[in-house]
Fold these 4 entries.
Entry 1:
Amino acid sequence: MTFRQLTVEEIGELATECGLQAVEWGGDVHVPPGDFAAARRALDTGLKVAAYGSYYRAGVSDRADLAPILETAAELDAPFVRVWAGTAGSQECPDRGPVVEALRHAVEHAEAMGTKIALEYHRNTLTDTLDSTVQLLDEVDGVVSYWQPSGGQDVFSAVHEVRTLEPVTAHVFSWGPGGFQDRLPLAERRDLWKPVLTELARDGIERNALLEFVLDDSPERFREDAKALLGWIRQ
């Protein structure tokens, strides 16, 4: 959800200028499902494809929608396809069965296409809490998790979530207690991100740390956030 107003080429130029190496291309604007020409333009930027960010809602979306998503991920050679675990939070979803079965179906078909299904870690889905996410990972073999902080999250719980989930990707941004409407410069949550990044690197497995929710959707703010992120990673 970063720079929907920019073209694929402009995003590639900006990310490269900032010294970033990877991108998650979104299926809503930049690389729609089935648009292989857009996928090739994305590859032409030279950025590593961290994932294909779909808006497939397991248990809600039509399963027929999955095929063009996976075909586009294959065109991108994306190692992960990000999906969403339904449309209701764990406390509002008494029957997890449809989401679980849809995810199992997605994992099976993704494996056949040479990619993996990754879960967005997000409110209003079955990954809205750590406990529910862990349960879902147990219920669906082969699915993996993303991680992102909640608004104003404390450091202890953030590190605990990352240590427990061992996410393949972290969406990196800083929010105040007001959440999405309370975006901050990334550097204002150095207290959170330094220990989280240390935890993400602890086992030596390569993971993606992807900038998102830039203040004012501003390229200049993005440059500042990228500088902060790379500085923390290199320390």
Entry 2:
Amino acid sequence: MLDRPALLSLLQLASPALPVGSYSYSEGLESLVDRAIVNDAKSLQTWIENELEFGSIRIDAAIVARSHRCTIAENFSQLEAWNAWLSASRETEELRIQSEQMGSSLLKLFLTLRPEYIQKFDGLKNNLPKNPCHFAIAFGLAAACLQVPETEAILGYLHSWTTNIVAAGIKLIPLGQTAGQELLFNLQNSLIEASEIILDLGDDNLNSCSWGLALASMQHECQYSRLFRS
């Protein structure tokens, strides 16, 4: 069971108010809405559930777990290797830039709030900041330092992602705020099931079927009119 300081830390990390810029990205959803592939709460829920089961978000969450473990073990060379692995796995420039921007922002924020970790872990200073840090890496690292358990860190990461996609859907489709909250409530079981599966993924099983996301992201890059960042 989470103690209160760890719970508060997790809530802060997963909060939409975390100043990492997540609100400015739709991860291809804007192009899906533009083409009427996603046009109501039901189709948005289906898209999110498919991503949780088959998409790249499950791989990102698995890297959160590996970042968490590497941080606890102070194995920063392995942490850097997973960071490079994530860079290689991004299917579009838009998705890579988003991940690197959000991750670098979170790492900078964390080290500003908790500067003692710069001194405690030389790896934080010597390995990651010289290269772009992916969001999943920074999230797992921060969760471990703040003593948030791995299981809860994965669930918090998935909830943060889902909240951001639902918020984008509220603006784009559009949906009402109540419909958005109903959608988040309906997705609770899917989030729990996804987190449990992700915990058991071995390194050889880090794969996804996310060509739909990749196509949506590529189309978003050249979409004529956009509300969200490309």
Entry 3:
Amino acid sequence: MEFFDFFRWEIIWNYRELYAKGLWATIVLTACGYIGGIIFGLLLGLGQVSKRKLIYWPAKIYVDVFRGTPLLVQLLLIHLAVIPTIFGSSQGWWVSGIVGLILNSAAYNAEIFRAGIQSIDKGQMEAARSLGLTHSQAMRKVILPQAFRRMIPPLGNEFIALLKDSSLVTVIAGAEILYVSKVVAGTYQRFWEPYLFAAFLYLVLTYAVTKLIAFIEKRVDINYNPRKKKERA
């Protein structure tokens, strides 16, 4: 009880609007980074299973570089060097943050796609080709749908990891949850309230995502039967 007496709730209440904006920024950053990372990661994953060296090696090198370097360093390079060099000036933390999260997430998603595709028996591709499908048609209609079921858990874990990694955008002044907490802590010179509340918000977000992933896993399970639920009810 002494801790709750010590905890100054009014600090959080006074900055509730700023925290709401930070929460929204975190959600948008994560969603954009993940969607872009899924699309780009799929292309990289297909590149890593390609037999053409001109496609395989660039994809392989990209994945190794982005998985082997810290996201923090990548964000700083993108924000302070890459984007200003391309556009002549900084395009703001939104652009740098989303681009950085996309490029980083794509590398991890690429490995998930590669492993998922390679986990499907080679006979599936041979059977599809024998039916007259091209390689791309067989990949799209036969291999990827089967692999997707196996990829849902690791893709879900990557989403959760990206959600927490979005806090690193604070180093480029991204106004997400952690940045707001730093502002509040600096204003009051108190650290329990802002950072514990930030941890609480991340916990709520990750819990919600975990439940959503579990629901999706259940729905795509080949043994899932919604009628059984109705019968029990």
Entry 4:
Amino acid sequence: MKKHLIASLVGAAIALSSPLVSAASPDFPHLETMGVGEIVAQPDTATVDVAVSLTRTSAQAAKKASDDAVATLLERLEKMGIARKDIESANLNLQPQYSYPKNSEPKLNGYRATRNVTVTVSDLSRLNRVLDGALADGLNRVNGISFSSSKEVELKEQARMAAIADAKAKAESLAKGFGESLAGVWEIRYMTSTPVRPTMMRMAEASNVAASYNDAEITIRDQVEVVYALGE
């Protein structure tokens, strides 16, 4: 898994003394820094959202056609070794389809049946086969593909450590530059963040599935604010 660390300089504030300190600010010389850590890694998991959406002259025919397509896909996925727990098939959505001729009553043209299937693919080498199989089995819409990592807890910890190191390095540099010394940490403010998961553009037509998804990356950031007391 490819990954790299990025330490982002967001800025820091030094306050030796000020009559305009807020109620939450310490009343002694202090220095505030913000540390940011970022991990960029290749994902190892994809969540595929596909659907079958078709129209037939009767509700029964529409339901049967959509159910058949989903059943065929589920059988194919099982043969590929994808566990049933990694597959979610939504309930049927069945709606009448009307046309509205001018100066005439609405005309019933048939019924549209739609079913969604969500597949979690933990082996990205299978992703293209899953997509091709879904399309071959009659699922004619790809709603999107999102990527994630099974190691997000570990990556989050790495991002947090990078953020802490970033905050400490900036505090030490600033204190040294102003001829001060750090007397210890007075306050830590931790800010949680959500991983940035790449998602392929929503695709209404199956023919657009050829878009590349091999270079996807997941970004995990963490951030911490630290208030240091300055020595005498």
